[in-house]
Amino acid sequence: MALRIRLTRMGSKKRPFYRVIAVNSETRRDGRALDFLGHYNPMVEPNDIHIDNEKVKMWMDKGAKPTETVISLLKKSDYYNS
Predict the structure, then answer these.
(1) 82 is a domain residue
(2) Is the dihedral angle over the CA atoms 62, 8, 81, 49 positive or is it negative?
(3) Which of 15, 57, 67, 16 is nearest to 35 (CA)?
(4) Model's pTM, two decimal places?
(5) Is the N end or the C end of the chain the one with fewer CB atoms within 10 Å?
(6) Which domain holds residue 40?
(7) Separation CA 18–CA 8 (nearest Å)
């Protein structure tokens, strides 16, 4: 089972809101999540990014790989120091 850390879309039409989730890679985009790791709201200024770094570390230790978009959000939320 390949694990991924990715976004799932929430919110209404033209008002996106995303949750950062840990999920099996074969699961569809809005499918059932294994764990909720945070959220991202691009509709407010500045963008609201809240990610639980301890949960992200736990899932990455279990072999979960973040998507490119999640990596950029982790960098903005100071998870990566580079």
Answers:
(1) no
(2) negative
(3) 57
(4) 0.86
(5) C
(6) 3-76
(7) 5
